[in-house]
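Subject: Predicted fold for PepSY-associated TM helix, 241 residues

User T.R. writes:
Posting the sequence so we have a shared reference for the thread.
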Amino acid sequence: MNKKIFKHARKLHKWLGYLLALQILAWLLGGLVMSAIPLDKVHGKHLATRTLNNPFTQADYVASLDDIASQVANPTQIIFENFLTTPIITVINKDEQQSFNGITGRPFEPPTKIQITANAKAHLLIDAQVTSAVLLKQGMREVGYKTNVWQVQFDDTFNTTLYLSENNGKVVTIRSTLWRIFDFFWMLHIMDYDERENFNNPLLISFSATSVLFCLSGILLLIQNIRLKRFIRVKSKNKSK
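User M.O. replies:
I've generated the structure tokens; pasting them so everyone works from the same file.
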């Protein structure tokens, strides 16, 4: 094989190594962290639950279903649930969902801050106290930029945060330090430093293609090294004869 090929391969391998070193380290470290943290813990299932058992029976929902359903255009689903000590009937269509008081049949009024805090604590699976409860008109990235959500933070080791809907008090999502660590390394892994969702971004594709070249040039150098060792071995045998 032409020696110039090996010369160019060595130079290419060296400079690609300089270029890729930090990103390859980030890929390896990110893979280690993301594989070491179970997804259940990332999603906070050991910290809080998204839903609670409904303590009410069908007989407790005394409001007229016909009257409630007539207030929603083309309903497709009716759910019997609860918020704290109030039975709730939620009617869903293809565009929205509306909640009603299961006793009076009136539209369910948005919960107060005290009720939101009580509901967040009811969903908590650990021993922790609320440190803040703030209504966000525009949520942060960790809640998907959802609008009109309550952010309830707790004082536990994992900085558990529950996000609840302003309209019905339902838990939207659970976040913690573990999720934020996972999310940070996921960002490094897919090289999407903005929304952290695009797995097909040009930067990742470019670095992946460059990594392939790095591996191919390394294989060429390995072949050269093997051939060189064989040559030295054969030459040594010839001298000893």
